[in-house]
Amino acid sequence: MLIDLVQLRTFVAVAEEQHLTRAAERLHVSQSAASAHVRAVEESLDTQLFIRTNRSLELTRAGQLLLIKAKALLNEATLFTSFAREIHGKLEGHLVLGSTSDPTSSRIGDVIAALRVAHPLITVDLRARPSTGAQEGLKTGELDMILLLGRATNAAFTYYRLTTIPFRVAGPAAWKEKIEGASWAELAALPWICPTDSSVAYSTMLKQLFEERGLELNTVARFDNAALGRAMLEAGVGLMLMREEHVQHGLAQGVLATSPIARAEFPLFVAHVSSRLNDPLVRAFLSAVMQVWPGMALTPSQGSS
């Protein structure tokens, strides 16, 4: 019996999740269907792919070797479909994109608009993800492309630097005198609204600003979405690290104050799995990005583990 691509995708998902239920949820199929797919692959190959433990499914040695081949085959199948459509003269397909939760900085709306003008047969799903979740989604194949605030850290990805986003420490306007005159130690002692661990970019910048000076922040609240953090700041909960454009908007409205000494910056990238460098859908998206970000680095860079 031949193995079809659906069964192969299920095998890869179960191998990556090490859990049948999570893999089924990721693929939007029933658990029984996912189990049947894995069983069909094992029967077709006459090979045991998983060792079933109490809490997870672990790959056998044969399963580990076949996983590498399965991923390569699925990638080639995606490229085959894309090239076939391109040869037909009309590039069509579907992209699932992960983006930071701040559309102003990434200009993701403009990018998708440019993509739609050039390729009206390409449809898009856009999902807000923190940098950690975005890169995980790219690794598992859930996402095709990501725009992220972060570092080029994964050797399996190709990154294109779009710009550098400036940040400033801001707080409620009622604390203006305390914030503007505060030393580093005094800033750290004020109440803080900090990111969760999933917000790697914010966490990294705060470490550079304060931990490297031997200071610990007085954290009173946390957020996993910057808009939620800004809402708490404006309500008087505490200080936070905020993007420059939001700082300027808040200053104009008179709802916040900023520190003159605490500034940071972080790079904004678009990235894809390196094996899809020549995928027509990926190239189409990158072309749209270049229209919106003409200063984008034309030479991609590989991540470093």
Topology (SSEs and partners):
Layout: H1 5-17, H2 20-27, H3 31-45, E1 50-52, E2 57-59, H4 61-87, E3 93-99, H5 103-106, H6 108-118, E4 122-128, H7 131-140, E5 145-149, E6 157-172, H8 176-180, H9 184-189, E7 191-195, H10 200-209, E8 218-223, H11 226-234, E9 240-243, H12 244-253, E10 256-273, H13 280-292, E11 301-302
Parallel strand pairs: 3-4, 3-5, 7-8
Antiparallel strand pairs: 1-2, 5-10, 6-9, 6-10, 6-11
Helix pairs in contact: 1-2, 1-3, 1-4, 2-3, 6-13
Describe the structure.
This protein is α/β, with parallel strands linked by helices. It is 46% helix and 25% strand. The protein has helices at 5-17, 20-27, 31-45, 61-87, 103-106, 108-118, 131-140, 176-180, 184-189, 200-209, 226-234, 244-253, 280-292, and strands at 50-52, 57-59, 93-99, 122-128, 145-149, 157-172, 191-195, 218-223, 240-243, 256-273, 301-302. Helix 10 (200-209) links the parallel strand 7 (191-195) and strand 8 (218-223). Helix 1 (5-17) crosses helix 4 (61-87) and helix 6 packs across helix 13. 36% of the residues are buried.
